């Protein structure tokens, strides 16, 4: 990895490329990249189908890889960029990992657990609060998903 990019939009473009990779593998096109000190620590894309693992969302794949890379499950002072608003499972994992900041592209009105269906980013019962920003390159991120599901139907 070791990729060094600058700015939220640049990192989101990186995550979009990862989502495109997922789509090429027949997975739902979601990509995630974990950044610390403006360097890529880990990356992931949806792999639930190929790994036969319901927990292999892009965020979880990236968190697992980052834990190994840093030798610690606590991913302090990191930012996760992901093309789709995280679900309940992923928000729980982000909190447990102590990710500092979350940046996502498209919202997920039905399953999004940051600010759409649920507002877990602001939940006081979680052991760690994550600052977040949504809507970065949202149209591009949403188009990936719409095109994918349209082609499946």
From TrEMBL:
Note accompanying the cofactor annotation: Binds 1 zinc ion per subunit.
Keywords, ordered alphabetically: Hydrolase, Metal-binding, tRNA processing, Zinc
Alphabetical list of InterPro entries matching this protein: APOBEC/CMP_deaminase_Zn-bd, CMP_dCMP_dom, Cytidine_deaminase-like, tRNA_aden_deaminase
Active site feature: 59 (proton donor)
UniProt EC number: 3.5.4.33
UniProt xrefs under Pfam families: dCMP_cyt_deam_1 (PF00383)
Any one GO BP annotation for this protein: tRNA wobble adenosine to inosine editing
Gene Ontology molecular function: tRNA-specific adenosine-34 deaminase activity; zinc ion binding
PROSITE patterns per UniProt: CYT_DCMP_DEAMINASES_1, CYT_DCMP_DEAMINASES_2
Claim: tRNA processing is one of the keywords in the record: yes
Cofactor: Zn(2+)
Catalytic reaction equation(s): adenosine(34) in tRNA + H2O + H(+) = inosine(34) in tRNA + NH4(+)
Annotated binding of Zn(2+), by residue: 57, 87, 90
Domain named CMP/dCMP-type deaminase: residues: 6-117
Family to which this protein belongs: Belongs to the cytidine and deoxycytidylate deaminase family. ADAT2 subfamily.
Subunit structure: Homodimer.
Functional note: Catalyzes the deamination of adenosine to inosine at the wobble position 34 of tRNA(Arg2).
NCBIfam families xref list: PRK10860.1
Protein name (database record): tRNA-specific adenosine deaminase
Lineage start: Bacteria, Pseudomonadati, Pseudomonadota, Gammaproteobacteria, Methylococcales
């Amino acid at each position: 990895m070791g990729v060094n990019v600058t700015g939220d939009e640049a990192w989101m473009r990186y995550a979009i490329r990862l989502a495109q990779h997922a789509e090429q593998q027949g997975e739902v096109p979601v990509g995630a990249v974990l950044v610390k000190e403006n360097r890529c620590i880990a990356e992931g894309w949806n792999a639930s189908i190929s790994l036969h693992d319901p927990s292999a969302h892009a965020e979880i794949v990236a968190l697992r890889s980052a834990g190994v890379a840093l030798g610690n499950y606590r991913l302090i002072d990191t930012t996760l960029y992901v093309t789709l608003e995280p679900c309940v499972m992923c928000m729980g994992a982000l909190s447990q990992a102590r990710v500092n900041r979350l940046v996502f592209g498209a919202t997920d009105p039905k399953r999004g657990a940051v600010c759409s269906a649920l507002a877990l980013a602001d939940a006081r019962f979680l052991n760690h609060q994550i600052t977040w920003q949504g809507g970065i390159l949202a149209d591009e991120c949403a188009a990936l998903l719409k095109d994918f599901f349209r082609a499946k139907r």
